[in-house]
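Pair request: fold both.
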Amino acid sequence: ALKQAEEFRAAVHVLLEWLSEAEQTLRFRGALPDDAEALQSLINLHMEFMRKVEEKRVAVNTATGLGDAILAVCHPDCVTTIKHWNTIIRARFEEVLTWAKQHQQRLEAAHAELVANADLLEELLAWIQGAETALIQRDQDPIPQMIEQVKALITEHQSFMEEMTRKQPDVDKLTKTYKRKTEPDKSRANRKSLSQAPPVPIVLLSQAETKNPRINQLSARWQQVWLLALERQRKLNDALDRLEELKEFANFDFDVWRKKYMRWMNHKKSRVMDFFRRIDKDQDGKITRQEFIDGILASKFPTTRLEMTAVADIFDRDGDGYIDYYEFVAALHPNKDAYRPTTDADKIEDEVTRQVAQCKCAKRFQVEQIGENKYRFGDSQQLRLVRILRSTVMVRVGGDRKS
């Protein structure tokens, strides 16, 4: 009985020591590598560990069998102790075996994922190479001058953009996976402090965030292809807008444009002179062609820059690059205009402006409005009273009136 007891005790102690070492080995495996060869080496080492675990099953069965034999003949006071040690070695062995199988599954899953990611990485790099070459080649080809052809190119490019959008999750998956694996482990103390800190915004994967050069290449080239695709989309849309403007401009009629503008001004209850003065920042009575074009476009009047270039040519009668107030009003109010001023004061102002616009001198004839129907004319700047007499604008000079 003593010999059996010592043999059982020795077997249990040997098993407990081995189980402790096995648990330590499984507990401190660390992070899995992102290299296929290193991961395969870990799998081989773990397979050897599993073989040793299975070999220890014989020792566990031998020890528990010896305990069962002792239980059959031992004193009742010893039953609890023997059953306790039998239960301990069986439970701990099953725990180590289960833990080892779980780690084996983790290694196999990681290896399968690594292989799949490597295949996906090569597939994406090959697709990016073809896409980049195709985009560069398309940019070198001249954009056609037919609207339907440009629309066909836009539709084709839209399909390409949709394909890129479908592949974006695969790229995110690869870059985030490798980024996650290369992040250093934090201590428990640091984890507590970090849990109270504000979240760090996600940034694009950079060269410093992963040691895998293929992932760095994927990230850089993917961004490059996106930029090329967006630039191609912008060029096609600009070309389509320009062709549609040219198509509309082919039937451009200034008189139609002028009447539409005057209706728009009347609808807004705005005066032409107020609009001109708003554009004329320095109040010198004239604005540049560009200021005129930008001012009309900024006012939200429904027109295009191409139309405004043609309109500016019409407004700038003398071709000096400037549009003064008199040219502005004269172009908008020709003699037979349904939108002529209605009040006497406005009619007088309109007629005075039109008459002064006919002056082609280097120094334009000076007219200054002092008040309603009161103007100063010429170098003398003598005050004159202006009235309408039988539909004719008359300027009172002394006791006479002159039209």
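--- second member of the pair ---
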Amino acid sequence: PKGYEFGGRAGALNMDSGAHVGNKGTEMGTKPTTAGIGGALIPPEQGGCPRCGKRVYDAEKAIGCPNGLNYHKACFRCKTCGKSLDSTTLCVAKEESEVYCKSDYGKKYGPKGFGFGQGAGALNMGQ
């Protein structure tokens, strides 16, 4: 292809990992992997996120969090399926201090037994 500075100089995109010159680590290998300050988890009672354990500041807090729980915007997801939640799709399991979408909350805490949760196709109107 023709064009001004199209891959012709040192600034061009390169997919080489550098293994032939001895590079072993990647950029992501240097990122911290522990939660909280100094690796300590912060409990939800002290302003920590119940999902990741890091402190939740006001600018990071998800809108619609249940009382007493502060979640990061990225952590405010269903525990089971990972669907992003808001105030209209939120169900709270108080005994677990966890949040679920309406569908997964119904599956976990809804009525149990034969015939429940199967939809209209399972109804029998005959004799």
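Observation on the second member. The CA atoms of residues 47 and 63 lie 15 Å apart.
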